Amino acid sequence: DNLYDKLAPRLTKALARSMAHTKQTRAANVYNRAFNNSFLGGDSVELCGTQTLQDGSTLANELATAADLSEASLQQALIDIAGFTDDKQIPIALQGRSLHIPRQLLFVAERLLKSPYRPASSENDINAVYNLGVLPGGYHVNHRFTDTDAWFIRTDCPDGMKMFNRVGVSTKMEGDFETGNVRYKARERYSFGWSDWRDVFGTPGA
After folding, report:
1. DSSP per position, 120-141
2. Which end of the chain has fewer beta carbons closer than 10 Å to its terminal beta carbon, N or C?
3. The whole model's pTM is what?
4. pLDDT tens-place string over residues 31-73
5. How far apart are CA 113 and CA 119, in angstroms?
6. Which residues have C-beta within 8 Å of that of residue 25, sequence separation ≥ 6?
């Protein structure tokens, strides 16, 4: 007798979950499309690639040779980030802040960032990444990354990745007099992108 009273909370909850999933997927797509030249930034280059500076020179925010996540590739990425310059080729001393990975790289990242000794090595050397604390933000697993071996480092660039919330979430419900059906809808407006590509360093994996 009270079917709508029972279904309404369930449907509105499912709608809210769908809205949240869509928003997170669109945010992750900025990374999923980072190496796709169909999605370009202000300098007509994809998020991770060989970028064109204002003086006509170039600078890359990806590894020269794509590589899977490892001690060597992670260290090289951090070295490359430290060599970033502004558009007049003046060094700006950026540093890595956090590592962003798909779920498939969770255990690799844990060994690389949490072990005090070099991972996968018989030597008694220290783990330089761990001891120097060069990734103070640790690592973050994004379950909406679609490439199983692509990984990214966020830097401390002050004006990088962007999210604009244009219109907040609003929901409505209405009933149809003739059929007795009830309709639910939700609406919000937002956009994701980047202003400064130096905020991200990435590689699609080997």
Report:
1. T-SS--B-HHHHHT--TT-EEE
2. N
3. 0.86
4. 999 999 999 998 899 999 999 998 889 999 999 999 999 999 9
5. 9
6. 144
